[in-house]
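task queued by scheduler; priority normal; single chain, no ligands, no partner chains; default sampling; output format set to C-alpha cells
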Amino acid sequence: MNENKPLVSAVELDALIQGWGAFPNQSIDTYFPLRSWFILLLSGAYALRLLFFPEVVAANFSSEAIEIARLSKFLYFRGWFLISVIGLAAYAYFKDWYMGILFFCILLVGCVNFIFDLFNIYAEQLSKPTPLLTLVLLVRLFILWLLYINLKNTSRMPQGWDKINVLLPFKRLA
C-alpha cells in the first residue's frame, strides 16, 4: 500500500471548500462603523457613569443602605472593567487584530454579564418592574444584538479609514 498518496486531490479539496470563508466579491458592510461607534459611545458613557457616580446608579437598583454600598463597589469595578474592554476593543479595531475572535469574546462576556445582572443587580427591581427598567434591559439586548451583527459581518468590515467613517453608508462605493 502506498502511504504517500493523498486521500483527496488538490482539485477535490478546492471543490469541497469552495464556499467557505469570505467571498472576495462580497460588498463591505457600510453600517459596520456606525454600529461600532454606537456601541462604543453608549458603553463608554455608561462606563464613565459607573466610574464617577456608582452610588447614584446603585441607588436606582436598591433601597437598602447595605445593598447600595455593596452595589456601588461592584459597579465601580464594572466601570473599570468596561473601560478596559473598550480600550482593548478600540485598539484591536484600529489594528485589525483578530476581530472575529474579539467580537465573539465581547459578545460572550456581554451575555454572561447580562444574565448575571438579571439575578444580582436587577433582582429587587424585577419584583416591581418600571418602564425605565424595561428600557434599560431593551437597550442592553439591542447592544448585544448589534455586537452579534458585527461578529457575523466581520469578514465584510471596511478597511483603512473607512472603518471609522460614520458617513460610510452615504459614500459612493466603486
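post-processing summary
- The two ends are 55 Å apart (CA to CA).
- The chain has a mean pLDDT of 88.
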